[in-house]
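Morning!

This is the sequence you dropped in the shared folder:
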Amino acid sequence: MKINTLKYSITNTYLIEGEKGYLLFDTGWAGTFDAFCRCMGDIKIPVQKIDCILISHFHPDHMGIAENIANLGARIVIPEVQRDYIHSADAVFAKDKNSGFVPIKDDTVRFIKLSDSRDFLKKLGIDGEILYTPGHSDDSISLILDSGQVFVGDLNPLYEIEAHKGTTIVESWEKILKFRPQEVYYGHAPAAVLGDNTGATAVVDASADLYELVEKIIKYINKGMPLAKIQKKTGAGEEFIEDVNRMYLTHPGVSVQGILDRIEIKGR
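The structure's back. Tokens below.
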């Protein structure tokens, strides 16, 4: 089995090569389909070879091109716990007529019970199961493989767990850690290798200056200031401001550190 990390948008997506098929975990924002296809070309795997798509949760940056990919032959597989959330991001894309967003077609989706997830994965030659792991959102799921890898989407990073005592986030992590995972694959942060005490050895540390910059951008967003004016006020790059704006508006209650964990900081 091989795990391919696909970097073509602000969201990490993962193509898992099973012995009998390909599973794509998450997709990017609407409008990134061409970039996704180029990324697949780089690893020399045709998009048409993807058998199934699994979505960690239905926020726009994780499901935006799912139907575009499905139109080339992949099947979107949705656990029953996510059924009521399939179209929760449609309204976000409806505001941008040029996004290229294609809504998921309910009649082509395959719904499965979590209790049947191991059998579903087995047909792709993948040993593992799907867990219900709410915390970031009520529809969040994680994919855990028997070989030690877990894909958690936007579940708050394990290194933040002390800050979330008594919450659903901790309950979800406790559920995951019972499987003794060795590697964690996040939706927006680098993968983390876990030590004997389940402590992440790969942690994203943002400088105080960058932290303060994001705080300023959020303050101006709350004032309704146009992005171009925010750029003049802060001197930040246009793409960085757009990323902060997008993450802030689509992830209600997200912290500054949470935003920094979710955007590609290097090179900006």
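Headline: The chain has ten helices and eleven strands.

More detail when I'm at my desk.
O.
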